[in-house]
């Protein structure tokens, strides 16, 4: 689906994703500052939001859409390090650490993403301890999940990691109206890059899960039929 | 039981002496006398090698700020094996995931003699809220840590063991520097090094002796000296900078 018409960027006060964003309880004066200085763009699949090796000049904030943050190796193979959804901010890690971007960001579907200049964001951090606390919570969560992942990578078999990835996607993006289908339709390749394995392995394991009646597949959509078995397969203990 | 030893002799001293001169520590300046906001309620502890600072799944009541020494952060897998997720150096704050987690998400184990300041969660959060510069420094250091772990995650999927080992050696050089004999200044046994670079001990020994044969590194008493940095960088396929 390609959107060719002009997109209106909503005022921050009217942003549909504001309630699930870190800016949800910002006083309207400070929100006005963001609104005044922000820009926005509609990104389509295949476009990039930012590139590894470039210097962050601000913070991205998702109005609607889904985004993957990934690294690529010498041969061009992707590894997805994080996923983001509406209301999430992007590019904060490198912005805060003062480093160059260490990953790429690209939309998984058409996404409207606003951009807040660096100076505006940092001046808000200086004055608003509440916002700092929220950013710190995101960082703390990221650190925790990165540590979990590196420990899992070395120890968990691919089958368990795939089951876990499906559960994480369910947790993160939620379910569709039928209360069973995952709220995100990743390509098999993207899914393999989340798990950190070959695409063929993911395809083989998905059909194994289907034969075991744990999931049902329809195109890119994945429906979780047997949540308990999936949790068991994922071998999650905390 | 954690083998915490409160260093009563030193509690009256402001803080571990290294912290005073260490402007590079993310929180170093906040322990200096002119703005000694960290000093109240902090306690200095001393740990021997292999002592446990805190354990995974224990209630996270506070953070440890490493004054001197090194520590490893480990997680126990469901198969009972430990995996090293991060290595800490002086100046690092350990237990920082208490911002989102009621319990410690890793265990911290001393690699050599460690002196660390314990700051209670309540105290730490108060300081965080009251001092934007402190908050910013802390966020910056955590953001860097995340970057490092994510780089290693990508490495596990994308790099060969050979590339990973070369990269980890360079990372250790970057992080811990060298001793007076120009050997890597890190008391990490091979077992731990293998664990940290996600390879088996056998693969690691094979790769190290291969590097040794090609005169890229020298190994003596379990300590490693990097000889040809540019070639290691090439092997790790890091951008040369």
How does the SSE layout of this entry go?
The complex is a heterodimer of chains A (238) and B (241).
Chain A (H helix, E strand, L loop, with lengths): L27 H10 L1 E5 L14 E7 L2 E6 L5 E7 L4 E2 L1 H6 L6 E4 L3 E7 H10 L1 H27 L2 H16 L14 H8 L3 H13 L3 E4 L2 E4 L2 H8 L4
Antiparallel strand pairs in A: 1-7, 2-5, 2-7, 3-4, 3-6, 8-9
Helix pairs in contact in A: 3-4, 5-6, 5-8, 6-7
Chain B lengths: L4 E2 L1 H4 L5 H5 L21 E5 L4 E3 L7 E7 L2 E6 L5 E7 L4 E2 L12 E4 L3 E7 H10 L1 H27 L2 H16 L13 H7 L4 H13 L3 E4 L2 E4 L2 H8 L5
Antiparallel strand pairs in B: 1-2, 2-9, 3-8, 4-7, 4-9, 5-6, 5-8, 10-11
At a glance:
Chain A is built from eight helices and nine strands.
What does it look like?
The complex is a heterodimer of chains A (238) and B (241). Chain A has eight helices and nine strands. Chain A is α+β, with helices and mostly antiparallel strands and 238 residues long. Chain A has two domains: 131 residues, Jelly Rolls (Sandwich); 79 residues, Arc Repressor Mutant, subunit A (Orthogonal Bundle), CATH 1.10.10.10. A four-stranded antiparallel sheet of chain A has the order 1-7-2-5. Chain A has a three-stranded antiparallel sheet with strand order 4-3-6. In chain A, helix 5 crosses helix 6, helix 5 crosses helix 8 and helix 6 packs across helix 7. Chain B is α+β, with helices and mostly antiparallel strands and 241 residues long. Chain B has two domains: 150 residues, Jelly Rolls (Sandwich); 78 residues, Winged helix-like DNA-binding domain superfamily/Winged helix DNA-binding domain (Arc Repressor Mutant, subunit A, Orthogonal Bundle), CATH 1.10.10.10. Chain B has a five-stranded antiparallel sheet. Chain B has a four-stranded antiparallel sheet with strand order 3-8-5-6. In chain B, strand 10 and strand 11 form a beta hairpin. In chain B, helix 5 crosses helix 8 and helix 6 crosses helix 7. Chain B is globular and about 55 Å long. Chains A and B meet through strand 4, helix 2, helix 3 and helix 4 of A and strand 6, helix 3 and helix 4 of B.
